[in-house]
Specification:
Blueprint: H1 2-7, H2 17-28, H3 32-47, H4 51-69, H5 76-94, H6 96-102, H7 104-113, H8 115-144
Helix pairs in contact: 2-4, 2-8, 3-4, 4-5, 5-7, 5-8, 6-7
Length: 148
Amino acid sequence: MFVLQVAMSGLPNIHVTDVLIIITVVFFGWKALYSVAVFIMLEGLVWGITMWWFCYWYLWPVFVVVCILMRKNDSALIWAVAAGMHGICYGALCSIPFLFMGGWHTAFAMWVSGLTFDMAHCVGNFVFTLILYHPLKKVMALSLKQKI
């Protein structure tokens, strides 16, 4: 997750992290939280620990929980919609701490200022998940020698 996100860091909020988390949840369930925790720690070590990093500690685990609830789904389209929704909601969820630091107007300003990035995040998540879900699932199943 981390290496691919760093490799794609030149693109604003476009990465394959969501589809990798989805695949990890499909195969490992709650254990996906371990890889998410390592991912978050590495992000903080490389990019620095600022407000976004603290948001990661609830944003990614919440996505894991949503994926756990959808774990039996095998439709790339449904997973793509879930990943896209995570992308479009990302900025709103990241603005939650600003409610406590500056009130609703600060949180709203933070959310609105990042909407274009959230839209790119949504589209990127949707497209990558739609294209990569089944191929990654097959590769993971083969590597684990499980039935698809």
